[in-house]
């Protein structure tokens, strides 16, 4: 019995010694790590941000130049002092072929590759350590998105969407103007409400598979609201619209804008710009078509081309005219 107790006491003593040794080793390791951590982290530290102190502005000049405006001249102006990457691919820098002076405090970086003036990039300077994003101005992106949706990528003349309402209400100019204004209000209202529901409800709750049903419900709510308002405020215009006001609910353009915003994960400004540009483009298409169809009614048209065939021919001519906007860039 005494031997058993002695063995147990020896085991307890050995276990305590092992625990003490482990604690001492852990403490020594932590102390060594604490002493080495600052020295190891220093070489891998990223360049400091530059809140407008050194680089006053940075802009893309197509096709392969980056224009810098500095607060003071740089001591080093060689290509190795600069690093330029895409914001989405920071590990793949653009090779810099040349660094040219542009005035006393300006620099032009010439890179290998074609730059997109509407994309986001990142500029890093080694000496002095500076890092800053290179993005287009928000107002320029907003204006460009509106003009691109209205002219360059017009949903009617380049994508051929929303044709049922387009052909139905473009016979008279006053009806076309009223439908254009109504469509614009529905487009902006439903686009922003759909964006809010997608950003703060569908995406956080992982309910993206319901987005089409939700967007149709939002559009139906907006159309019903405008239908009630028009019936009370402008009964004559409401009567001219007829069934085409209800058809806005399932209009391809109305549904395309929220779906495009959701697919691109666009922000509030981009969603608003696309909605405004799409609504303005549809209103412009209605106005141009109504003017042309009113003029055509005064001409002698062969019987086989009267009505819808001639309307399709006019739409094709407008589409050819709008093709002239393709390739237009507002960042040159």
From TrEMBL:
Topology within the bilayer: Multi-pass membrane protein
Keywords, sorted A to Z: Membrane, Signal, Translocase, Transmembrane, Transmembrane helix, Transport
Entry coiled-coil feature ranges: none
Pfam family, one: Rnf-Nqr
Main location: membrane
InterPro entries reported for this sequence: NqrDE/RnfAE, NqrDE/RnfAE_oxidrdctase, TAT_signal
Localization of this protein: Endomembrane system
Signal peptide: 1-19
KW rRNA-binding (keyword) present: no
Transmembrane stretches, start-end: 139-169, 176-197, 209-229, 241-260, 272-289, 310-331
Single GO cellular component term: plasma membrane
PROSITE patterns: TAT
Name of the protein in its database record: NADH-quinone reductase
Species of origin: Eiseniibacteriota bacterium
Taxonomic lineage: Bacteria, Candidatus Eiseniibacteriota
